[in-house]
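not sure who needs this but someone in the group chat was asking about Molecular chaperone HtpG from Chryseolinea lacunae so here u go. i didnt clean anything up, its just raw.
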Amino acid sequence: MAAVTEEKGTISIHTENIFPIIKKFLYSDHEIFLRELVSNAVDATQKLKKLAALGEFNGELGDLTIEVSFDKDKKTITVSDKGLGMTGEEIKKYINQIAFSGAAEFVEKFKDKTDAKDIIGKFGLGFYSAFMVADNVEIISRSFKSAEDEAARWICDGSTEFQLSAATKAERGTDIILHVNADSEEFLDEWKLKGILDKYCKFLPVEIKFGTKSENEEDGVDEAGKPKYKTVTTDRIINNPSPLWVKSPSDLKDEDYLAFYKELYPFSEDPLFWIHLNVDYPFNLTGVLYFPKVKNDFEMQKNKIQLYSRQVFITDEVKDVVPDFLMMLHGVLDSPDIPLNVSRSYLQSDANVKKISAHITKKVADKLSELYKKDRADFEKKWDDINIFVKYGIISDEKFYDRAKDFTLLKNVDKQYFTFDEYKEKVSATQTDKDGNVIYVYASDAGKQDSFIQAAKAKAYDVLLLDGVLDNHFINTLEQKLEKVQVKRVDSETADKLIDKDEKLESVLSDTEQETVKGVFEKAINSKAMTVAVESLSPQDLPVVITMSEFMRRMKDMAKLGGGGGYAFMGNMPDNYNVSVNANHPIIQKILKAETDDQKARLAKQAYDLALLSQNMLTGADLTNFIRRSVDMVS
């Protein structure tokens, strides 16, 4: 075997090898071509403005509007700017040398003289996205440095061959002309192009014209004194070059934020409040995040935050930048420091992304804390809409829990609100068990569990309302975080057993009578899913109470929410319930005194069906039979 000789060299990438990759695979979404070409036009305009500010361009800037146009008959799409322009040599340098970024060179050249953050381009590849939709691409450009009318024309058919020649162009700037191929004629449509511009270019920092629009304008009054109107045709400017997030918060009013929200989400209700982000160290981040009124459909709320890089729309998939528990927020984030892949189509996670995510978490927690301290009554009014954000954050983010624990509220069935500390102080005296654990009792459905709630209240217990989509997870977090606290659903035990205080009522039944009653109920119920026990309860309690243990019910609820692991196993197990027969209730004496077994079974079945009804578990034929039996008993 021949020895390998140590050698250093340069890997050579040939244009003919990389061009098809750029042309066909770099941009998975063909509509991106318009974003890239318009972004390049914005770049050229911003560069000229920078040079003018530095005194390196002394001419008149004039109208800098970028224009996008199309000709269906000629099958062309044209993007025109009045920016920097290029000489023939610059076209050869910037266009023929793939991946040589003119923006990168510009930033490097002027980095010590000016803030060049407004220059969009980064990779120098965006221009080539034009070949996804065009058979031929033509450039006609006149540099701001050129003599009058002196311009250059470049044309390429998507191969490695190009033609460069002199041209005549009256104005400074660049026209990119796409001769659209047969497979892409869908883009030769006004509303298709407008849709792409609205999506990607809506907030670019230079005005972009796309055709014209007609509007009615008042034109005096007629003989009857009624206003007259005339139709006026004006340029259709498709973007807002100065969106709200680039402005200083001190210059904005509430109505400005609400108006911008409507601009982003025209058919949505007004948001509850918002956070204006404006960070320039250790990373650049601007934006506005809105807290919407959350609807029941958890997933429908997501993907409403738009990510921009220097006002160029990138994506609404921001899960790497925004913590998952805040994905239901709405609004805009803009950062040049978020790393993008070469096509600017998705994010690449790195340390900056993690820092930005942590900063957003902190700002949200700070805003919520500020609202709580400023006006607690108003915060309580908002709680039903915002608690899902807070609870999700508490469950999933340790640092957020540390910041949020002082303003997170617990709401009881009487619509009273308490902080964690306030609630523990409220219930400790009456709801501490024999082992020193404070028991928080809660309802997940106040309507269906009302009989259990009333039984708990009769013992002076307070009942929380935890009926949200995340509350099963939130309950687990409460038990983990709060010392000596256990949480039980109000229907997981009889009221006497919810909080074990080692207090036992005496039974009025003998052991023999208890065995008789148990046998009657087991025969009447006839279900392996029901475990019958005769217990000594208060005569004021129901004759029969059906419960599922807190552990079993919680595991099943977690399985429904996709808890995974052991939860999934529990979710597949059959339901098992405890049937507590109240030995001290008067109806039990009636059952014992009934003359026949059929009468005993009939009374037991009625009491059992009442318990099912209280748990919303009586349906179908069983419900029909219960109603008929009830009618017979009162007839």
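also The CA atoms of residues 284 and 337 lie 6 Å apart. if thats useful
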